[in-house]
Design goal:
Pfam families: L6_membrane. InterPro entries: L6_membrane (IPR008661). Keywords: Membrane, Transmembrane, Transmembrane helix. By secondary structure, the protein is mainly alpha-helical. Helices cover about 70% and strands about 5% of the residues. It has helices spanning about 1-30, 35-40, 50-70, 70-75, 80-110, 150-195; strands at about 115, 120. A hairpin with a 2-residue loop joins strand 1 and strand 2 (about 120). Helix 1 packs antiparallel against helix 3.
Length: about 200
């Protein structure tokens, strides 16, 4: 039963992480707290990949709810190992979602923000190999939205960090689920033999 408790604690840990990923992704749509940029499609294309909403958010919420509901599953199917097999699948879904969130956020960070420059709307740092991250003086190339570089860098860094934690938690549950699915039936048989 301790493995079910471990899975439930991981499920509880995933809930705030997934919520924060969703919020961070939504905020990327509204730089400078204005709706006009998204209406005119003047946001980076990577935002439309919904890495925080779909990958780090909904996929992780699916995994979290499976982990949290494992006690009921164990009661329904009769064994903890059955519930653990389901948690392995949920952990794989969570790993895929958090991995997607991490990769898209990393690509978006490398490309840099989409902003208004003297040459018009563009991604001015797209081809500099993320050197703009270390040179704050270059950030003034973006005229509008104000502070767009800081906005994007902060939110994308948050998504990178959150998705890393989500991935680690899902890997822990994957390992726990596999170990329990493989070794628990043997333990039950040994306990039964000792009692007989």
């Amino acid at each position: 039963m301790c493995s079910l408790g471990f899975a439930r604690s991981l499920g509880f840990a995933l809930l705030p992480l997934a919520t924060c990923c969703i919020v961070a992704n939504v905020l990327l749509f509204f730089p400078d707290a204005q709706v006009t940029y998204v209406k005119e499609n003047n946001v980076t294309t990577y935002v439309w990949y919904f890495m925080g909403i779909g990958g780090g958010g909904l996929a992780i919420l699916i995994a979290a709810f499976v982990f949290l509901g494992m006690g009921k599953c164990a009661d329904g199917c009769g064994t903890e190992s059955c519930a653990m097999c389901g948690s392995v699948l949920a952990a794989l879904v969570g790993m895929a979602g958090s991995g997607y969130c991490f990769l898209i956020s990393a690509f978006a960070l490398l490309k840099g923000p989409y902003c208004l420059t003297k040459q018009g709307w563009m991604s001015p740092f797209e081809n500099d190999g993320a050197k703009y991250l270390l040179d704050c003086e270059e950030w003034s190339e973006c005229i509008q939205p104000k502070h767009i570089v800081e906005w994007n860098v902060t939110l994308l860094a948050i998504l990178l960090g959150l998705s890393t934690f989500e991935f680690i938690i899902c890997v822990l549950q994957l390992i726990s689920g596999l170990v329990n699915a493989v070794f628990r039936p043997c333990c039950y048989k040994q306990e039964y033999n000792l009692n007989v």
